[in-house]
Amino acid sequence: MDVNGKFFNTGLLIVATILVAKLISAFLIPRSRKRLPPVVNGWPVLGGLLRFLNGPIVMLREEYPKLGSVFTLNLFHKNITFLIGPEVSAHFFKAPESELSQQEVYQFNVPTFGPGVVFDVDYSVRQEQFRFFTEALRVNKLKSYVDQMIIEAEDYFSKWGSSGEVDLKYELEHLIILTASRCLLGREVRDKLFDDVSALFHDLDNGMLPISVLFPYLPIPAHRRRDRARKKLAEIFANIIASRNRTGKKEDDMLQSFIDSKYKDGRPTTEDEVTGLLIAALFAGQHTSSITSTWTGAYLLCNKQYLSAVLDEQKKLMEKHGNKVDHDILAEMDVLYRCIKEALRLHPPLIMLLRSSHSEFTVKTREGKEFDIPKGHIVATSPAFANRLPYIFKDPDRYDPDRFAVGREEDKVAGPFSYISFGGGRHGCLGEPFAYLQIKAIWSHLLRNFELELVSPFPEIDWNAMVVGVKGKVMVRYKRRGHPLN
Ligand code: HEM
């Protein structure tokens, strides 16, 4: 081999080495630098699905001890990365929409809520629509909603006899539909159209099935009924809005607030948007609140210590204010508040919150391990699981409302995302104060006016429902008090 040949070969070797080095650096080094979360073991393709269908909480209970607070599940072609606990879920709650968005993962709501609202619109419009919710739920509005909640509760329970047995779950569901109807949908619906509108909401509700999450437009009878009901509701609300506009009569309800809402550019809401926002409010608030009222009752009736604590609180408030109940008096019910909050810690109706990742981000676990969560992953956190983490909540499966009392405040010790029944951060629940007021209004009335006893076994969890609630009936024996508590 001559000198030129030697140079040629050496040159080739150098070029090849550089190329290989480049390839290694392109494929291996970046990959090895990426600290991807561990992956849930399972058979390819269907394994993840089977694990998920078996119940997401069962899967979390099995995997969290093995894999820790950050791990990925392969579900079909999607990667779902779970972030469990306040240390790793902070970004989930705080990230801007451009980094972690709700739009894709909550798309399945679009045929129910209707066009032009919430997850059917850009984030900038959605933000304005959430501003309408915030305005409709301001304290001055809440004060007048509370007066209506109290009238509804008094009216509803006046129809109970002097003693008897009822399914508390059914009763509270019905009362809450009536209250929501009055405060949110308006007087016209509550007074004249209640049965028609309830039936239509029932069809909307039944059109939201687990299969709808994956295929919201699948041509099945339940979806067809949902679409018909949505159209009919739009007609009903268009008539009500037109009649309010004609007469110039204003009411104290969320409907009025949405009619009066304006976008930044001065554009008023359309009739279709008002209908869609009301449906969204009802979907966000109705089952969640009635489920929480039922759990609150079940726990109080099984925990004599807390039952007597809430009764004492009611007695004291009655000594101070007489029989009167209003927004400010409800705000004084701290013991009842903690009892509701604890029922909601153990049983958050929204068990899984989701986002879609639009850019890579890094999380750090409490052990100091860092993981990079890639763009394109679905990111999930679970109130049902995180609310029972033993390093945050002492003896986490125990009903212990005092864990929120001054001095313990377990919901705050690990930062703002320790207790996440209402989510938190950028998309935290806008209806939280409304929900507490409603549940307190119902329970203060029941406690003051009835002696109650749970006669069926302590209820189980209905994991199969979209909004996870109570399985079966919750039978309660009641006896009307001769005179209210004091
Ligand atoms: C016990 C009752 C309730 C519970 C447990 C609850 C729970 C939640 C949770 C967990 C979120 C966050 C969802 C996420 O991050 O993906 C949320 C958001 C929301 N909730 Fe509630 N909710 C309740 C009652 C209500 C009520 C009564 C209303 C309205 C009347 C309401 C309106 C909303 C709205 C508008 C949002 C969206 C906020 C946003 O994305 O910026 N909720 N709720």
Written description of the protein model:
With 486 residues, the protein is of the alpha+beta class. It is built from 19 helices and 12 strands. It has helices at 3-33, 46-53, 56-67, 86-94, 110-113, 123-136, 139-157, 168-185, 187-206, 210-214, 221-247, 254-260, 271-302, 304-321, 327-331, 334-346, 383-386, 410-413, 432-449, and strands spanning 70-75, 78-83, 100-101, 163-167, 353-357, 361-364, 370-373, 378-381, 450-454, 460-462, 469-471, 475-480. It has a 5-stranded mixed sheet with strand order 1-2-8-5-3. It has a 3-stranded antiparallel sheet with strand order 4-12-9. Strands 6-7 form a two-stranded antiparallel ribbon. It binds protoporphyrin IX containing FE. The site of protoporphyrin IX containing FE has 22 residues, from helix 6, helix 13 and helix 19. Protoporphyrin IX containing FE binds at residues 102, 130, 133, 281, 284-285, 288-289, 292, 348-350, 353, 421-423, 427, 429-431, 434-435.
| Strand arrangement, major sheet | 1-2-8-5-3
How far apart are the termini?
111 Å
Number of strands: 12
The CATH top-level class label of the largest domain = Mainly Alpha
What ligands are attached or bound here? Answer: protoporphyrin IX containing FE
Mean pLDDT: 91
What count of structural domains?
2
Major sheet details: 5 strands, mixed
Count helical runs. Answer: 19
> Any guess at the CATH architecture of the largest domain?
Orthogonal Bundle
What percent of the residues sit in helical stretches (DSSP H or I)? 55-70%
CATH topology of the largest domain: Cytochrome p450
Range of strand content: 5-15%
